[in-house]
Amino acid sequence: MAFTILTVCSGNVCRSPLAELLLREGLAALPGVSVSSAGTIALVGEGMPADGQAVARVLGVDPAGHRARLLVGEHVRESGLVLAMAREHRSAVAELHPRAARRAFTLTEFANIARQVEDTDFDDVRVLPLDDVAGRLAAVVDVAASLRGVVERLDEDKLDVTDPYRQGREAYELSAAQLKPAAEATVALLLRAATIAPKGAGRSCDRPVAGKEDEPRRNTPLKGSSLESGLYQLTQRAKGS
Questions:
Q1: At what angle do helices 169-195 and 107-114 cross, to 10 degrees?
Q2: Nearest-CA neighbor of 177 among 218, 99, 238, 103?
Q3: How far apart are CA 122 and CA 8, in angstroms?
Q4: What residue ranges do the domains of the chain occupy?
């Protein structure tokens, strides 16, 4: 059984392909997981612009093979998780396939939830065997959906990734600096769901750590990215612009 992740933006030449590449790289070790992208007003057949390709290479991914495609309902129906680059794209996804609204998020929205998921939220994931990767990922997407109104929310102006199209290299670097940590947090949650011990396999997973169950949820950044140096470069350039 396969699990498909779909990233969505407007033209499918800037934000969503970069998210696609980063997610695919981060989840490469998981069997049966595929990542694709599409655009609501796609520049069909076009590749990423030169500035976008340059930024992608700084982050360690190869954009050469990307070609834009138009978002259609079939793409949404076949996806277990849809990550939109902005709220307008999330709305477009829901219009194409209303039943997908529960599993559609903006990328930064999903990342914000991912950073606040606790071990005790994984009960429905941990009842599944480790070899059911698709089932575990589908279960953790349900967990994220159920936490939408529970965890600390992002400010409205942080729900969208900046569109850099035709705005120059600095805009691409700023957009990537927003997108990259969100992709990392998403990868971290999905890897955690795929590998967390099944229920009953270890006492430490069967109950919360003493004294922790009543602590408020915190939105804390994840550390230790394999591509951290690339993100650091982009962040510093964006700050200096």
A1: 40
A2: 238
A3: 27
A4: 3-204+219-240
- What lies within 8 Å, CB to CB, of 46 at 6+ separation is 11, 13, 67, 68
Which tens digit of pLDDT belongs to each residue from 179-226?
999 999 999 999 999 999 998 765 444 434 334 444 555 444 444 443
Kindly report, residue by residue over 58-82, the tens digit of the pLDDT: 999 999 999 999 999 999 999 999 9
pTM of the predicted structure, to 2 decimals: 0.84
Q: Catalogue the active-site residues.
A: 9, 15, 124
Phi, psi of 51 (to 5 degrees): -65, -40
Phi, psi of 85 (to 5 degrees): -80, -15
> Please, what CATH class does the domain formed by 3-204+219-240 belong to?
alpha beta
Look at the alpha carbons of 135, 37, 177, 100 in this order and tell me if their dihedral is positive or negative: negative
CA 134 – CA 2 distance, rounded (Å): 6
Bridge-based pairing of strands 81-84 and 33-39 is unpaired
What is the spatial distance between Cα 120 and Cα 211, in angstroms, rounded to a whole number? 13
The more confident residue out of 235 and 70 is 70
